[in-house]
Amino acid sequence: MQDASAGEDHGLKARLTEAAAWPVRLVFKILEWPFAAVQRVVGVPRMPWLFLAPNLLFFGIFVVIPLFINFAYSLTGGTQLFLQDRPFTGTEQYGFLLDCERITDPVTCREDRFWKGIYNTATFIFFQVTFMVLFSLITALILNREIRARGFFRAVFFFPVLLSPVVVALIWKWILLRDGILNAFLVSIGFDKILFFVSPEWSMFWAVFVSIWANMGFYTLILLAGLQAIPPDLYEAAEMDGTKAERVFWRITLPLLWPNLLVVVVLALIKGVQVFDEVFVLTGGGPGTATQFIVQYIYTTGFVDQVQNFGLAAAASVVLGVVLFFLTMAQLAATRRRDDA
Amino acid sequence: MMRNLKAMLGARRGTNGRLHWTDVFTYFYLAFGVFLMFFPVVWLVLSSFKTPAGLVEFPPTFLPLSQVEVQVEGQKKPLPLFRAELEDGSVKDLAQIRRIGIVSQMVDPNDPDAKYKVPIDKREPIREFRMAWENYFDPLERFNFLGYLSNSVIVTVAATLVTLLINSMAAYGLAIYEFKGRNAIMILVIGTLLIPITVILVPVYLVVTQLGMVNSLWAVILPGAATPTGVFLLRQYMLTIPKDLIEAARMDKASEWQIYSRVVLPLATPAIAVLAIFSIMWRWNEFLWPLIVLNRSEVYTLQVGLNAFQGELDVQWHYILAMTVVTLIPVVLVFSFLQRFITTGIANAGMK
Asked: Which residue range forms the structural domain that includes residue B247?
């Protein structure tokens, strides 16, 4: 580790770096001889496998094997945690989940909580993704203009991305409470107080609003990078031709930004399908089940309910996984198209 | 560049320096954006310094003002002080003993025997500016707040170290060597991107239980350690390292481990720094998974602990707000020092 950093830094910073680096160096030094020993036995060509081994082991134990267990779980019933204790029930869990008289109406389904979760998630995604993309685009366009202190404004829109969902939810909950500052404002301009978390519509509105507030900066950043990658010559040429500004936007900016926009839409969809943290802390899924989403359904079914129904939770996860699979495929395709363009 | 920006959305300024409507819109949008993004956080910080009495006031005061309380002879508790208008029209500073309906029973602090009955609309609370630091210090003793804090720090540091080590080793294996099966591994790595933890909650919980890690911090640290994004990011960076350097090191009889630890890693420091920042953010903010595997309050992380508090029936907002601010501080620090790294990292890798 020494060669790269030596001789450039001075004083305190260098000493601090040095102090932080020595345990790291010690670990690498200790690992040196077992790796050298293995290398002597297996030879250089097989060494990559040794370097890959720890990471693959983790992938295997915590991702690949669970993926299969998940599927196995979804085919079993009972309340036992360990697979060997669970009776095989075939597709019963799926049958239970998908048993609906009318698929458009969650109330007619046997497991109405699941369907309510799906409809809530769909509603959430529809509004969240639409407005997130819209506001990210406007913000990116504005940040891309000739403005002073652009770095500052970019940071302003970006910083909530790094806040934890719990913190974000608590910040907004505090504003939206019955005696919170927003209600104080409403009263001061002559309205009545609104009990936001008692109304299903308002709860959904704030769930969408808060998650846009928290995540918009991320998408803005991607779109901003896309805008800055548009070759300036195009705009110069358009200006020389005296092209109208709106036309420039529709004919140059938007088509060239399109691949990035697509990536943003799909990324937002993937995140949206998995929405849980902010909304769970903000509304707790309520009032009733008005803001209960699919992930919360899985969490509640598997880990909160008195009778922990792991099989049903696993079956719902498989459904979620299938949706995510297609969305991620779309993302990879969109990213490839953007990077090829 | 400037010309490009000017042309954007018709943002060209007239030659006479007049503002186009888009310029006006820009300034309004930015001003409103600053307000909308900052105000909630500012409000949180200001509120966190209010006393419980100050917090329940409606309409709320902007600054942390709290009502002055005085100790009056013959009364057990300190009493809140009001400026009251008496029946004869004189104004006096009185302490309130109790309130009965719309009348409050008051006493003159300087003359404990002089009692008054004042209608509640004839009295104004006397406030003073006071930062309620006890909101920050009480939770240290009353709840296991320091425990949550140290759990969060342990999880974040340990998980980031494990992630950096195994991800950089894997990236090295995939970037430096040509070997059969490399593409298959790359597909596997990208494939695991498809499987977020939300999809495999139940089976990972089973695995963690089998390994005996439920209610230990390892259950939070280990499952997410092998990040596909990390492997991908580091590998892309390591691909840019000239092969000659590695060949030269082999000529000098360096072992493969030495090449990894002394040649490749130092050169990949920028990418490792980006991954480190992201890993710290991910781990510090993680919520759903710790919520599932940590069921005893001794092992709660900050996020889980905060959520547990806000879910209690008798919500003690003065403590919750202060603890939220504490949870926020590391993120704000990291952000203000490393903003550039983070934003370029996101723009390049599209990860979060």
From this structure: 143-349
